[in-house]
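Deliverable D5.2: sample structural annotation.
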Amino acid sequence: MPRPIQATIHTAALQHNLARVRRAAPDARVWAVVKANAYGHGIERVFEGLRGADGFALLDLQEAERVRQLGWRGPILLLEGVFEPRDLELCSRLGLWHAVHCDEQIDWLAAHKTQVPHRVFLKMNSGMNRLGFAPLRYRSAWARLSALPQVDEISLMTHFSDADGPRGIAHQMAAFATATQDLPGERSVCNSAATLRHAQDAGVRADWVRAGIVLYGSAPDFPEHSSAHWDVQPTMTLSTRLLAVQELQAGDTVGYGSHFTAEGPLTIGVAACGYADGYPRHCDTGTPVLVNGVRTRLVGRVSMDMVTVDLTPLRHAGLDMGFGSEVTLWGRASNGAVLPIDEVAQAAGTVGYELMCALAPRVPVVVMAD
């Protein structure tokens, strides 16, 4: 039989989370962000759950082609725009909308031969200091684009650096509002955190919100708020089974480096998952895990193919455990218990985004409709 590890993609949870975004921004259209192969879930696997969105936003032309091949005829937005002039040919052929964040991209458009003008999203650097035109240069960039016959409609866009934290978005909204005053065109400013925390303001939710991590069941402002607080559901479950059970005595150690020492009699389980599966090596003793739906903890170091878990809580719960018992590394257990990916990521010193994107190719993936 195959090794028992498996990732499960939950279509109903994707649909639920998309509906949650719509409740947060009721009169805005929603970009479903599927960059990084849909945050590690797989574009083809999430398409059915997210096809209720108004458009798909991503980075790579190859990913845009995959979305079109799935039958999507609506808007597709390249969030970083094109990377070289010939990319514009594929934008014309596939009908892609694309960001414009630098003078070179405007130059390429000016030289591009096309019969159908392009829809572009002019990006402002309002304080993130990654991509975009500075506020003082934004209007001149808009003027250059609006003069090009290769350009149809120009939308206006920026990206928040602190929508998930105490600094907030006011300073960037002020810069954006000043630089775009009286300019025509639809606007898009909200990422996941801004959509959940600030989109009650009509000026913030604007015409389009860009929903990313929230669609995949992670809280964008964890640990201040949990996924349960925002009523979003896990869309990926990483699960496996116990391979063995070991009985330890006081002084016995576990794993490489003897990193964990039992203080007394202890029953541990050995589960088929390790860092070669995408489970973070930096997780250590205390990282939460579910066994048969009961919350317990890792003990010792994560190895390439295995982790070890404390089975004491299952004895307290009166549950039998042994070879083949279900282990949920993150997501939803068979009994409905949920282990948020954000908690596991916190134990590893990272964020849920990274864990989703790091799922290893050797892990089999299935899609469930319920």
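Annotation notes: The first strand starts at residue 6 and ends at 10. Residues 39 and 200 are 26 Å apart (CA to CA).
The annotation will be released with the project's public dataset once the embargo ends.
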